[in-house]
Amino acid sequence: MSENLERRRFLKGLGASSLILAPLGCSSVKEKENAYTPHYVMVFDQNKCVGCGECKEACNKANHLPEGKSRLLMEQQSGAVEGQPCPHCGKTTGCGCERKFVRVSCQQCKNAPCVTVCPTGAAHRDPKTGIVTMDAAKCAGCKYCIGACPYDARFINKETDVADNCDFCLNSKLAIGELPACVQQCRYDALIFGDANDPTSYVSKLLAVKDSVRIKPGFGTEPSLRYIPIVKLGV
Length: 235
Fold this sequence. Notes:
Blueprint: H1 3-14, H2 29-33, E1 40-45, H3 54-62, E2 72-77, E3 100-105, H4 113-117, E4 123-125, E5 132-134, H5 144-148, E6 155-157, E7 162-164, H6 181-185, E8 191-195, H7 202-209, E9 225-228
Parallel strand pairs: 1-9
Antiparallel strand pairs: 1-8, 2-3, 4-5, 6-7
Organism: Shewanella pneumatophori
Protein name: 4Fe-4S dicluster domain-containing protein
GO molecular function, one term: metal ion binding
């Protein structure tokens, strides 16, 4: 899937909820009551990820992150059972047959603990897009949001002294009508982004036909990052 095709899908899916900020003007009460609320989600297809790390590099560059810090990580998992031989190669150690990768980043929770505990309102949900992000001017550096995150996905940016998290490139790429940097960079179509509240969007149609899972769903945070797990059928 080409970057241009995916970008066209994304822009088409924006519809009435365009992310490009328009000039402020007068609007009726009825228009405000009927305002459309998007739910932006990201889907990570574990079957397609090869662990190249280019998504991480693109994110760091787009969001000007300091060296040694990143809003996303790629965690490698083997899937092997310790002490048991691999059914494919027979090895009990050093087996890479079941190698798979998992994206570790902010889950963009609908019930975000980081937003709930923030005493200054710095960690908040963007009113236009619903995306969890930070107001740098309000952050006191207390780290409450970091401690409250059950996914260990937040950190203090040493250059800004502000808590940081993946906000789907809200203030960098999305602000100019582009897909998140990681999605644009992925050459293997392992990352899909869009509005799940729009039934005509590609991401909605994908989730309708693909089984997906969430990390730690029992916490009740309702993550917006979905994972399509590897499913290998036996012979």
